[in-house]
Amino acid sequence: MAAAVTDKGRKRPSNEDAYGLSIEHGAYLVCDGMGGAAAGEIASALAVEEAMRVLTARLSDESASPRMAAEEAVFAANEAIFGRAQRNPRLAGMGTTLVGLLVRERRLWVVNIGDSRCYRLRNRSLQQLTDDHSLVEEQVRMGRMTHSEALRSPLRNVITRALGTQNSVTPDIIELEAEPGDLYMLCSDGLTRELNDDLIESLLGLDLPVESLCARLVNAAKKAGGHDNITCLLVRAEG
Questions:
Q1: Residue 239: predicted pLDDT
Q2: How far apart are CA 197 and CA 119, in angstroms?
Q3: What is the helix, strand, coil percentage profile of the chain, to 5?
Q4: Which of 10, 37, 46, 63 is 20 to 30 Å from 94 by CA-CA measure?
Q5: What one-character DSSP code corresponds to residue 10?
Q6: Global pTM?
Q7: What is the CATH number of the domain that holds 214?
Q8: What is the pLDDT of residue 174?
Q9: DSSP assignment, residue 90?
């Protein structure tokens, strides 16, 4: 079971988030674009289009390696965005985050570039599975900044790794085993900037269909301020 909701929020004139999902192929993506003059929208849409094109083609073959498919999808998306920006000076510097989940039976692969996140709710307990590629989170991991300082930092929007801003990029890829009932959430930072982990955990723990949970999370982020675009994609592991 899977569902997704995206919303421009309450402050932004447009939505630079994009998502893709194919339950048939077990491929799920969320991207959060950046760049002026609508470049962020172009970058995120192009990333989803290219990555999903590669993933659905590769994962149609059950003998294909999901890890290699993820790497190829990231390479193709990065090349498409970087190439488009090189050809059009108005799009110079555009880029996007990417967080993805690939599912094959009980095995999962999480792929991540930037500060969009993947979480897992297991036995009513929430865990963040990805590391943010952001300046403040890298400072936190090195012990140079606390989490509360990171939330207040004027540098919290500085991304240290993105798709499309350079001619090559390396994603984080982790492999996991799912348990029946696990709930996986892919989201842009427009959700996690507004809602703390305790609130996300309580909302995900409600006994509701994934479509309703997505809508509740996005609406809660909008009510909390909705300062950025908000995207939530949920995948529940079948029993």
A1: 67
A2: 10
A3: 35, 30, 35
A4: 10
A5: T
A6: 0.94
A7: 3.60.40.10
A8: 97
A9: G
Handedness of CA 184, 238, 202, 21 (dihedral sign): positive
Q: 89, exposed or middle or buried, with CB in 10 Å at 0-12, 13-18, 19+? A: exposed
Residue found by looking up tokens 């300082």 in the block: 149
Please count the CA atoms within 13 angstroms of the CA of 199 that sit on its side-chain side: 13
Q: In what order do the strands lie in the sheet with 230-236?
A: 2-7, 230-236, 183-187, 117-122, 125-128
| Token couple for 74 | 């990231």
The string of DSSP letters for 7-22 reads E-TTT-SS--EEEEEE
Overall domain count for the chain? 1
Amino acid at 86: Q
Rounded (10°) angle between helices 66-87 and 39-59: 150
Token pair 């004139």 is found at: 13
CA distances (Å), origin 16, targets 56, 65, 101, 125: 23, 31, 20, 30
Task: Tokens for 103, please give them.
Answer: 């599912």
Instruction: Single out the residue of 85, 70, 84, 107 nearest to residue 184, CA to CA.
Output: 107
Domain with 65 in it? 2-236
Q: Say how far apart CA 149 and CA 217 lie, in whole Å.
A: 25
d(CA 59, CA 57): 6
